């Protein structure tokens, strides 16, 4: 009797902790929630503003990335799907279904040329420790798999916007209402005069000049 009562209280307490501490609550489309960031990683110096507006359907996570204050629109036109687009300018989402600090997560990037990078990351040290394993497994047919992307440049207004759809089946995450995820969002800024030295901007500061620090990922609740 006593044991059962304690278990019930414990279960209630854990559920409440997860639900009351999210950094972002993502609603069903067409409502959206916004992750906005204006600072560099790791210095905290100013970055041009980046917005990520998110919502879900039963089968997909929809993201609208908006880069403001853009002056370079810098990409390598030779790079195609899953190329090293992160060497130039990109906006990124790191995505994991679950509440813990992940050792494997999905890395999604898009550049101003509408090219995407789609890979699961294997990062067992959680912080990309020097000498520890660190690997990628690419999604090789994203558009055949249900991904979608559409990128629009607005040079007069120093802005580029990318609308992306990512299938939730990739995470065994369909009908996500009530589930807790971990995510971080990033933007790189670089131009022909500064290449390859990028400004790194991010939603949750990783404390290092690296994006692959999973204890820093924000807590995202699907509501
Ligand atoms: C979404 O999933 C729920 C629960 O399975 C279902 O009731 C609803 O009809 C689905 N909506 C659509 C648009 O498929
Ligand atoms: C793209 O490829 C062409 C042909 O190989 C090459 O001349 C050019 O330098 C490449 N551009 C970049 C930015 O790498
Ligand atoms: C971006 O790429 C996707 C996938 O190839 C394509 O469906 C879409 O029309 C492209 N959008 C633009 C603006 O080029």
Question: Could you walk me through the main structural features you see in this protein, from its secondary elements to its overall organization?
Answer:
This protein has one helix at residues 2-20; strands at residues 24-26, 33-39, 46-56, 60-67, 91-97, 104-110, 116-122, 135-138, 148-154, 159-167, 180-189, 199-202, 218-222. Strands 1, 5, 6, 7, 8, 11, 12 and 13 form an 8-stranded mixed beta sheet that branches. It starts with a helix and ends with a strand. It has one domain (2-222): Immunoglobulin-like, CATH 2.60.40.1190. It is mainly beta and 223 residues long. 9% of the residues lie in helices and 40% in strands. Strand 2 (33-39) and strand 3 (46-56) form a beta hairpin. It contains 1 helix and 13 strands; from the N terminus they run H-E-E-E-E-E-E-E-E-E-E-E-E-E. Bound molecules: 2-acetamido-2-deoxy-beta-D-glucopyranose (NAG) (3 copies). The site of one 2-acetamido-2-deoxy-beta-D-glucopyranose has 2 residues, from loops. One 2-acetamido-2-deoxy-beta-D-glucopyranose binds next to loops. It comes from Coemansia aciculifera. Residues 1-19 form the signal peptide.
């Amino acid at each position: 009797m006593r044991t059962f009562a304690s278990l019930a209280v414990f279960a209630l307490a854990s559920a409440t902790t997860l639900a009351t501490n999210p950094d972002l609550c993502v609603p069903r489309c067409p409502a959206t929630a916004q992750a906005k960031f204006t600072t560099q990683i790791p210095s905290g110096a100013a970055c041009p503003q980046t917005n990520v507006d998110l919502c879900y359907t039963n089968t997909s996570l929809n993201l609208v990335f908006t880069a403001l204050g853009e002056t370079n629109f810098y990409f390598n036109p030779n790079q195609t799907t899953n190329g090293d687009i992160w060497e130039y300018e990109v906006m990124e989402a790191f995505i994991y279904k679950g509440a813990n600090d992940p050792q494997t997560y999905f890395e999604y990037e898009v550049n101003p040329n509408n090219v995407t990078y789609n890979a699961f990351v294997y990062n067992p040290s959680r912080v990309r420790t020097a000498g520890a394993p660190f690997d990628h497994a690419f999604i090789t047919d994203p558009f055949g798999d249900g991904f979608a992307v559409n990128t629009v440049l607005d040079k007069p207004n120093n802005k580029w916007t990318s609308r992306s759809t990512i299938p939730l089946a990739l995470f065994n995450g369909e009908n996500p209402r009530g589930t807790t995820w971990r995510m971080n969002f990033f933007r790189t800024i670089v131009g022909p005069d500064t290449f390859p030295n990028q400004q790194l901007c991010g939603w949750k500061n990783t404390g290092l000049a690296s994006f692959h620090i999973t204890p820093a990922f924000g807590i995202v609740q699907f509501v």
